[in-house]
Description:
The chain is of the alpha/beta class. It contains 10 helices and 5 strands, in the order H-H-H-E-H-H-E-H-E-H-E-H-E-H-H. It is about 50% helix and about 10% strand. The protein has a 5-stranded parallel sheet with strand order 2-1-3-4-5, with helices on both faces. The longest helix has 18 residues, at about 30-45.
Amino acid sequence: MSKVLRRGIAVVGRGLRLVLPGVRQVYAQVGVYAKAWDEANDLALEGVGPLWVVLGDSTAQGIGAPSYDQGYVGQLRAVLDQQSSRPWRVVNLSRSGAKAAEVVSSQLPRLEALEKAPDLVTCAIGANDMIPTPLPELLDTLRDIMRRLPEGSVIATVPQGLRPAKAVPTNEMIRAEAPAAGLVVADVWAHTGPPWHGKLAADGFHPGLTGYTEWAKAFSEALAEAGRQGLT
């Protein structure tokens, strides 16, 4: 199948999905949640307390959750706050639809431009690469990300429900190589998967509130095992 034909099928598929009520409902969150995070980021940068910078895609934006701060980022922040003497500030640099290459070209430079190094950096990316990005290219890009993430950052595995033929080797590489780069692995794959009932948003693709709870657990457990919680 030619690249042009694949693109055409993808465009038609997106158009058909947007006709469905559940998909329209979730898609409508994209601009609203992005604006909410932009406003929250400004306040966080002006505030005091431990700083957490988030890199990633629509899951980091909380798309599919009832509100922008009820995705895994908001739920994990609540856990961090419980174990800290001061509330955490969150600067969320993620973008809905982002692929791994965008973390390299846009999100990491914004992280590196911050005046003060954050206390925590997390990155969950790769889900949007499962179809369009060749596996060798994806693995190379993820390795580039891992080289540039600050030591002690948390990188997530790709969740279940995508393309196992690509997701499995991607996750194997992350689990094998991230620790050697000084990174902590949040095994989102191990916390997702069937039964799907009650875990997904109205579009049947993004996590819903319960699904994001499992994502937050993956990050929380990884931080606890690495001794990164309760340090501030």
